[in-house]
Amino acid sequence: MTLDAVLARIDDTLPDACDRLLDLLRIASISTDPAFEGDCARAAAWLVQELKSLGFTASARPTPGHPMVVARHAGPGRHILFYGHYDVQPVDPIELWDRDPFDPALEETSKGVVIRGRGAADDKGQLMTFLEACRAWKEVHGTLPGNLTIFFEGEEESGSPSLIPFMKDNAEELGEASLALICDTGLFADKVPAVVTMLRGLAKIEFTLKAADKDLHSGMFGGAAINPIRVLTRILGQLHDDQGRVTVPGFYDDVADLPEAVRAQWQGLGFDHASFLGGVGLTTPAGEIDRTPLEQIWSRPTAEINGIWGGYTGAGFKTVLPAEASAKVSFRLVSNQDPEKILASFKSWIEAQLPPDVTLDWKAPNGSPASVMEISDPAFEAARAALTEEWNCPAAFVGCGGSIPIAGYFKDILGMDAMLIGFGKDDDQIHSPNEKYDLESFHKGIRSWARILDRIVG
Predict the structure, then answer these.
(1) Which of 203, 301, 217 is closest to 251 using CA atoms?
(2) Phi-psi region of 173 (alpha: psi -120 to 50; beta: other; left: phi over 0)
(3) Torsions phi, psi of 390, nearest 5?
(4) How far is the C-alpha of 84 from the C-alpha of 80, rounded, in Å?
């Protein structure tokens, strides 16, 4: 009955919760622009005050950039850490907004009521779902739910330059928790509640092939002199075979097969790849032909040529043999693939195919591994069951084709898995003008966290 009372309290106080979110959204905490440094500090202070009012011990911790907010409540049960970020993207182009981005409001739309304003979905609305669940819990139970640490970052939208040093310096304190919760994701297909259990890693590198000591006249030297663009396109044209597989030696050595139970869940999602690709003017999946489209974007590694250039590309025509040709190549990684190992193999593969008179210059190699969560932890199934109850729709363990570095940092620096649960929708327009967060997502997000907390720490 106590969970029912918490859910009823959430329903009854939703207008107040919306008012608090609107207050936070009015703070222009744009982390990438130094002009808004004071606003970022104000957002951190606002959150500290809210957390203290809920009974947390809370403080804004200084960094070389914007403050980290850390809060603690000691209680019984498993120690859980909740992460979110209070900074937001710049608002440009401002002329495309229908209202002041920092004058948020509830708006009626053809799809229901939305909360309109910068940061509504990414990530202030999402982090406030957890705080409001804690608020309702305390108002019913008289205490906060269990053993909690709150960790809010202020630089996620500007590359998190202070995050790794801060986590390492405070690893003993933050690492007391055994599981991280992250609310910065969304529903699958705008309706299916989801727990993200795998994130692809990323390795990337830029390189230049060099031949003659200057651009050459193609009439005087064409046929006799090597053209580095020809070499570059020949090599990169062999990066994939006719089955869609990457040909770099050893590329798949550390790639694990998708568990059958997870594959069955994904199949049950009814993913419409024709609609997915059709939305961007395409028709046919281009990855490994023996894998489903969802597998291709969530659980399989990729190699992509992100940029290629050389020679003359201006107006008109200039008949030269260029002295140089360059490319940027990236790899999305899965399972236990090591970014350094993949890049080393790729470099060796390129170098082995160079003809005489062509040399290589490598630039900017870097990468981070994939994150694969240990779903045998009972908390994952408990969360999935809680989401199913709230949304009246079977929740799923899903993958994410992109990379969310903080999840990997929790694993590598603090030794804990992260459970990524969010309530955003594809049309929330994050990072774009007229960002919004559905009122239903906010409301049911609060209720979802109350159900999850009841199952894993209650």
Answers:
(1) 301
(2) alpha
(3) -70, -40
(4) 13
- Compute how many other C-beta atoms are within 10 angstroms of the C-beta atom of residue 204: 18
Residue 398 bridge partners (DSSP): 196
For the chain, the average pLDDT equals: 96
Burial class (CB in 10 A: 0-12, 13-18, 19+), 35: exposed
CB 112, CB 97: distance < 8 Å: no
- Structure confidence at residue 405 as a pLDDT band (50, 70, 90): confident
Average pLDDT over residues 229-242: 98
Q: Note the Cα 349 to chain centre separation in Å.
A: 30
Question: What's the CA gap between 215 and 177, in Å, rounded?
Answer: 60
Residue carrying the six token digits 């982090």: 127
Handedness of CA 74, 75, 76, 80 (dihedral sign): negative
In the prediction, which pLDDT does 354 show? 98
| Each residue's pLDDT tens digit, 343-398 | 999 999 999 999 999 999 999 888 889 999 989 999 999 999 999 999 999 999 99
HEC per residue, 237-262: CCCECCCCCECCCCCCCCCCCCCHHH
What gap in Å lies between CA 179 and CA 172, rounded to an integer?
14
Three-state secondary-structure class, residue 435: coil
- CA 337, 339, 340, 342 dihedral sign is positive
State what percent of residues in the chain have pLDDT above 90.
Answer: 95
Strands 179-182 vs 417-421: parallel, antiparallel or unpaired = parallel
Q: How is residue 183 written in tokens?
A: 């609310």
